């Protein structure tokens, strides 16, 4: 398998699941900022020019959630199958992570990628921070008294890889104790540590925490 990857991006979800499943893959590195994701070579793998894409079984698969679902179904592990009482919960949390990831992506664009800084919209940054807080509160509530998103560790937890550290770049961990404890548990998993070591240093964040700038200055 070949995983098309950018450090600190959603491809961590795939790499983490691959490690949990005890599979192997080759990593092919791309950059979010050098224009290469718009090349015909990459667009042939991922038509929207987005990371990740996984080459496996004679084809390329794009969309991280689809890749995770494909791998769990192929391997018959780490996801409740259709008909299982937790199937709907599995699908909900898989897609919820992407809802949250889109908000994180908007905040990344405002705080990090959009230049000059005067091009940023402070009202939108505030709005997205509030929308992120809604998702973090929902996760915090769900995880209170639970170890994992479902009754056991699953690919739904791997979908949180990328979100899990990024959320606390924009929200104080102290306000979401169950989510912060979940982050600590998940990031201590040997497969997560192996995935992170392979994934490479974070290419996105320079600061531990990003405040919404004051509108006056
Ligand atoms: N829903 C897609 C989103 C993919 C996505 O937006 N990936 C980001 C990196 S985390 C990307 O490639 N960004 C480049 C861009 O927006 O141009 C998935 O889950 O795979």
From TrEMBL:
Pfam families: GST_N. Residues 1-79 form the GST N-terminal domain. InterPro entries: Glutathione-S-Trfase_C_sf (IPR036282), Glutathione_S-Trfase (IPR040079), Glutathione_S-Trfase_N (IPR004045), Thioredoxin-like_sf (IPR036249). It comes from the Bacteria. PROSITE patterns: GST_NTER. This is Glutathione S-transferase. It comes from Paracoccus kondratievae.
């Amino acid at each position: 398998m070949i995983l098309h990857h950018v450090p600190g991006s959603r491809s961590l979800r795939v790499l983490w699941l691959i490690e949990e499943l005890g599979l192997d893959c080759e990593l092919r590195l791309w950059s979010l900022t050098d224009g290469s994701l718009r090349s015909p070579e990459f667009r042939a793998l991922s038509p929207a020019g987005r990371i990740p894409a996984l080459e496996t079984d004679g084809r390329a698969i794009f969309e991280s959630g689809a890749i995770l679902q494909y791998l769990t179904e192929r391997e018959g592990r780490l996801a409740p199958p259709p008909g299982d009482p937790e199937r709907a919960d599995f699908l909900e949390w898989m897609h919820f992570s992407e809802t949250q990831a889109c908000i994180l992506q908007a905040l990344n664009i405002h705080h990090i990628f959009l230049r000059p800084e005067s091009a940023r919209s402070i009202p939108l940054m505030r709005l997205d921070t509030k929308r992120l807080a809604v998702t973090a509160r929902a996760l915090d509530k769900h995880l209170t008294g639970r170890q994992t998103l479902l009754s056991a560790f699953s690919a739904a937890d791997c979908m949180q890889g990328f979100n899990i550290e990024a959320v606390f770049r924009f929200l104080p961990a102290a306000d979401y104790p169950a989510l912060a404890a979940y982050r600590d548990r998940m990031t201590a998993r040997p497969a997560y540590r192996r995935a992170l070591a392979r994934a490479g240093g974070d290419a996105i964040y320079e600061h531990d925490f990003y405040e919404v700038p004051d509108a006056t200055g």
